[in-house]
Q: What sequence folds into this?
């Protein structure tokens, strides 16, 4: 197993500078991570920095709350793709899910997926806000909406990924979707545990620490 190819090397802090983004890209190139994950205003900068390498550019949409209109999310996603993004991580409308307005949640995700076509779409569930049954329902909706991944967390809520949630997500989506674990994964041992229970991708700012078998104090 090549751990580096599981990692979306992530920097989503509001105070991240251009120099920080360039450093993120340098690290991604050094370790050949699967992608860098940045806010959409930095997609073009990241794309330039990565050049013709195999490292992909991932960005977030409707982040971190998920409560934006579908139209705003679609514009953000399509604009990011035009700038060079090759994967989109969107935040599900959590309030709609908790309202049991499952049709609205489905439409939000499926309309975005339809708008971006073959570009992989990861849907962030924000598991810290959901019950077990809500996690299952969210995963079922993502299958129906033809998303490509379900993702645990933004890293900006009460807590991040949990092994229990990833197990629930994997059991629900089976082979229909992939699973991305993110939020609070700071070391190699923890990353390997998530992969063992079914994570197909790890979103973390601690990728370098993982590759060097160290522990990072980062929150994402």
A:
């Amino acid at each position: 197993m090549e751990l580096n190819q599981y990692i979306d090397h992530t920097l989503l802090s509001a105070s991240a500078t251009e120099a920080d983004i360039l450093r993120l890209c340098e690290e991604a190139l050094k370790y050949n991570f699967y992608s860098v994950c940045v806010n959409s205003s930095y997609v073009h900068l990241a794309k330039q920095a990565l050049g013709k390498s195999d490292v992909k550019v991932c960005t977030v949409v409707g982040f971190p709350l998920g409560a934006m209109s579908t139209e705003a999310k679609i514009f953000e996603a399509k604009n990011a793709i035009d700038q060079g993004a090759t994967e989109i991580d969107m935040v599900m409308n959590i309030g709609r899910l908790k309202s049991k307005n499952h049709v609205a949640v489905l439409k939000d995700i499926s309309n975005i997926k339809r708008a971006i076509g073959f570009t992989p779409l990861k849907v962030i569930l924000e598991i810290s806000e959901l019950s077990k049954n809500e996690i299952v329902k969210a995963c079922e909706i993502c299958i129906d909406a033809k998303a490509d991944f379900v993702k645990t967390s933004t890293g900006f809520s009460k807590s991040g990924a949990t092994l229990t949630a990833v197990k629930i997500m994997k059991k629900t989506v089976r082979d229909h979707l992939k699973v991305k674990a993110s939020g609070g994964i700071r070391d190699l041992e923890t990353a390997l545990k998530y992969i063992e229970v079914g994570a197909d991708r790890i979103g973390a700012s601690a990728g370098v620490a993982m590759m060097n078998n160290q522990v990072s104090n980062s929150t994402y």
